[in-house]
Amino acid sequence: MREVEVAKGELAAPPSTTRIRKKIMVSAVSSQAATSNSLAAYTALNGDDSSQQSASNVPPNDSDHGPATQVSLSQHALDRLMAALKQVPDAAQQAVDALSQAGGDRFQAHMQAMDRRVELMKINTQLRMLDWREETNNSLASTIKSMQESAIKWQNTTPVPAVQLSDAEISAILKKVAPLGIDRSKIGGADTYSFGDDGKIYTFLKDGTAWVNEGGVPTSEEQKQRGYQAYQDSMLYLTTRIEYSSVSRADLIAKRDALTDQ
Questions:
Q1: Counted domains in the chain
Q2: Where do the segments described as Disordered lie (predicted)?
């Protein structure tokens, strides 16, 4: 009977094929996960980017209750990733820089053209001023030359006293010069009133008398000296009005031609 009971006990609790198979699968899966984690860690240390995966990527299994294993990317892979990410903003920045440079170049060219136009205007203005100054100097020089000739002639002329006019001669000369705009009402109202006609100088004094003398001929030695001094003073003043520019006309023309050719 005892043997039968033992046999029955053994028969009552035989080893379950399902449990044995499950244990085998658990052991196999755990061994596979450990092998995969070890391989991933090894390849990460050796820089193989294609083998770097997290253990969490293994499909879930009821028998794998251990913590998930994560493997970090190698420094080389990180550098490549960061370089790839930087290429996009770098390319955009390069495009912006190129546009800015193009705009800056156009603005610079525009400003340079404006500077050339302004410089040309200045040069042309200086050339016109040189023309005006040259004409003025020539006119002043011509006047001074004529005055010098007159002063010399005056200085070398013997004085001839003026001749007093009669009433008839006064009426005749005033009638003759009336179309010239001679104001008869002013005669006698000033110390002297003079005008010229046909090379003669007519002088009306405040006392009502009138005198005539040849133009360019002093009436006395005193008048001769006063007249000569007046010539000298006038010529000296005109001389101070002559000015010479420090700018060379040839240099201005050369600068203008150089700017025009640009």
A1: 2
A2: 47-69
Same domain, 155 and 238: yes
> Collapsing DSSP states into helix, strand and coil, what is residue 94?
helix
215-222, long-range: CB within 8 Å, 24+ apart, which pairs?
216/150, 216/153, 216/154, 216/157, 217/157, 217/159, 217/160, 218/154, 218/157, 218/159, 218/160, 219/159, 219/160, 219/161, 219/162, 220/159, 220/161, 221/159
Do 192 and 213 meet the contact criterion of CB atoms below 8 Å apart? no
Which of the two residues, 5 and 122, has the higher pLDDT score? 122
Residues in the chain: 262
pTM of the model: 0.49
d(CA 225, CA 241): 25
Tokens 């209750």 locate to 65
Q: 140 with 248, same domain?
A: yes
Considering only 63-77, 87-101, 144-158, which range has the smallest mean pLDDT? Answer: 63-77
